[in-house]
Design a protein that fits this description.
Dna Ligase, domain 1; 3-stranded mixed beta sheet; 30% helix; Arc Repressor Mutant, subunit A; two-stranded antiparallel sheet; disordered C terminus; 4 helices; alpha+beta
Length: 142
Amino acid sequence: METSEAAILREKGIHPSAQRVAVSRYVLATCDHPTADEVWTRVRKKFPMVSRATVYNTLNLFVEKGLLRQFVLSGGRVVFDSNVSNHHHFIEVDTGKIHDVAWDSLRVENVERLSEFEVAEYQVVLRGRRKKRGRRSGEANI
């Protein structure tokens, strides 16, 4: 019986080799936005013989076939996102954790300076920190 990961790969026209299925098991199920090296490290725990090149090539194939999106953060760090629907990102500057932000929560139509343009595509990356809460007696910082 074929695994669901293998079926997903076949639907996209990808031959489901053992290495590709191993990569897909992690990267298509995570809500994190891992780098290629993070994917390689994670996949090696269960599939120790997988090479870094195989992981990189597999991730690029998944992007090409529409299973993943790839984006470049400041400093040239490339991450992969299994959420291929339109959405934006918020990055916690203290932890580096990336959160998805609903597409409709930020509207380009609200940018007056762009009103005379027809914007075809955009991606918003927000950066910030958690707000500090006022401490009350007995309350711990979060």
